[in-house]
Specification:
With about 375 residues, the chain is an alpha/beta fold. Helices cover about 45% and strands about 15% of the residues. The strands form two sheets. Strands 3-2-1-4-5-6-7 form a seven-stranded parallel β-sheet, sandwiched between helices. The protein has a six-stranded parallel β-sheet with strand order 10-9-8-11-12-13, with helices on both faces.
C-alpha cells in the first residue's frame, strides 16, 4: 500500500531541500510524494524559477497565502493547510527549514493528529529576536521525527529534552540539491555571462530584516558594500525585500557603482554557477553558509550569530559586523584558502537516509 507523504515548501530555500527528497521518494513503490506549495514566496522570481531548475513538477496543491505580517502569514497558512488535510489527510507531513510555513503547517497537522517530520531540525542561533528561531523551536517541540544535519543540532535537541528515538542525524539536504544539479551548474556560463571570466569577484546576498529593514543599518551596509567594491568586483542579486528597502529609504542610487553588478534574483543553477567560481561570498543567508563550506569558498556572514555554527568551526564561514566588511574582505583576499573540511554526512546522500527513516517510521507505526 502506498503511503502519501506531504512535502511542504513555502519559500525558495525550501524547494532546494524538498527537491532531492521528492525525487528519491518518487522512485519508491511504497509511498507517493505530494508537493504542497504554501505560496509564502509568491513571485515567479522567488519560487517558480527554482521549481523549474530543480526538475520539480507543478505542485499538487497551491495554498497561495501570500505576504503579510508574521501572524497574518502564519494564520492564513494554518487555515489553508488544515482545510487541505481535512479533505485528504496524508500519512506523514514533512516540513523543512524555518520559515513561517514550516511552523504553521506543523501546528495545523499536529492539531489534526497527523504525524509530522522536520527536515533540518535542531538548528539554533540562541537569538529569539529572529522569527526563524521561534519557528525552529516550535516545530521541533511538536514534530514526531527530527532529521538533523550535524552533531550540534543533536546536542541542541537533547538539551531541550527531546527523546533519542525522535532524533535522526541524516546530513545536509542542501548538498543533495547541489549534487542533483552539479552537471548543469558546472555547464552554466556563470561569471562569463557578466563579462567576468578570469576575474576575481565576490557574490553578495543580503536580505535579513536586521540588516535591511532600518535606514541606519541599511546605510551602514551600503557604505560597507561600496567600500568593498574598491577591492573586488561584486555580483549582487537583489532580494525583493532589499530592493524595496533601498527604494523606501532612497538609497538605490547609492549602490550604482561601476564595480557592482546589481542583478534580479537568480535561479538556483545560475546562482550556484556564480558562487562556485567566486573568490568569496558576502551574505546573511543561512543556506549559503553551508554551500560555501561544501565548496570551500570563503564566506563572510554579516550577522551576530548563526544557527549553523559547524560552518564556522569546521567550514569556511566567519561572522562579522557590517562595519568590518572592508577589512575582512582584504584579509580574505590576502590569505590562502581557509583550512576547512566538509562536515560528516554532507555527502549528497541525505535524501536516501531520510527515505529510509520514513520507511522505518511507517513500518514501526504498522507494527
Amino acid at each position: 500500500m502506498s503511503r502519501f507523504v506531504h512535502l511542504v515548501a513555502g519559500a525558495r530555500p525550501n524547494f532546494m531541500k524538498v527537491a532531492p527528497l521528492y525525487h528519491q521518494l518518487a522512485r519508491a513503490d511504497w509511498c507517493r510524494p505530494v508537493l504542497v506549495h504554501t505560496g509564502q514566496h509568491y513571485s515567479s522570481e522567488m519560487s517558480e524559477t527554482f521549481i523549474r531548475d530543480l526538475d520539480l513538477p507543478t505542485p499538487d496543491h497551491q495554498l497561495s497565502i501570500g505576504s503579510g505580517s508574521h501572524a497574518e502569514q502564519t494564520a492564513r497558512c494554518m487555515i489553508a493547510y488544515e482545510k487541505l488535510c481535512t479533505l485528504t489527510a496524508p500519512d506523514l507531513v514533512v516540513v523543512v527549514g524555518d520559515v513561517n510555513s514550516t511552523m504553521a503547517c506543523a501546528l495545523a497537522a499536529k492539531k489534526l493528529g497527523l504525524d509530522v517530520a522536520h527536515l533540518e531540525a535542531g538548528l539554533r542561533s540562541g537569538d529569539r529576536s529572529m522569527p526563524e528561531e521561534i519557528n525552529r523551536l516550535v516545530t521541533d517541540a511538536i514534530a514526531d521525527l527530527l532529521w538533523t544535519p550535524s552533531p550540534d543540532a543533536d546536542v541542541n535537541l537533547r538539551t531541550e529534552g527531546v527523546s533519542e528515538n525522535r532524533i535522526h542525524r541524516v546530513g545536509n539536504i542542501m548538498i543533495d540539491a547541489y549534487e542533483l544539479l552539479r552537471d548543469r551548474i558546472e555547464a552554466a556560463p556563470g561569471p562569463s555571462s557578466l563579462g567576468l571570466a578570469g576575474e576575481d569577484y565576490a557574490v553578495v546576498t543580503l536580505h535579513r530584516p536586521s540588516n535591511v529593514d532600518t535606514q541606519t543599518k541599511l546605510e551602514e551596509l551600503v557604505s560597507a558594500v561600496t567600500q568593498t567594491a574598491e577591492q573586488i568586483r561584486l555580483v549582487f542579486p537583489l532580494h525583493p525585500r532589499t530592493s524595496a528597502a533601498l527604494e523606501r529609504f532612497g538609497m538605490t542610487a547609492a549602490l550604482k557603482h561601476p564595480r557592482i553588478h546589481l542583478l534580479s534574483p537568480l535561479g538556483y543553477v545560475d546562482f550556484m554557477s556564480l558562487v562556485r567560481r567566486a573568490r568569496l561570498v558576502i551574505t546573511d543567508s543561512g543556506g549559503l553558509q553551508e554551500e560555501t563550506t561544501y565548496l570551500g569558498v570563503p564566506c563572510l556572514t554579516i550577522r551576530k550569530n548563526t544557527e549553523r555554527p559547524i560552518t564556522v568551526t569546521e567550514g569556511t564561514n566567519r561572522l562579522i559586523d557590517a562595519a568590518d566588511l572592508p577589512v575582512a574582505v582584504a584579509q580574505c583576499l590576502a590569505d590562502e584558502a581557509p583550512a576547512a573540511r566538509r562536515p560528516e554526512l554532507w555527502d549528497g546522500h541525505t535524501a536516501e537516509r531520510v527515505a529510509r527513516s520514513i520507511r522505518e517510521f511507517f513500518t514501526a507505526r504498522s507494527a
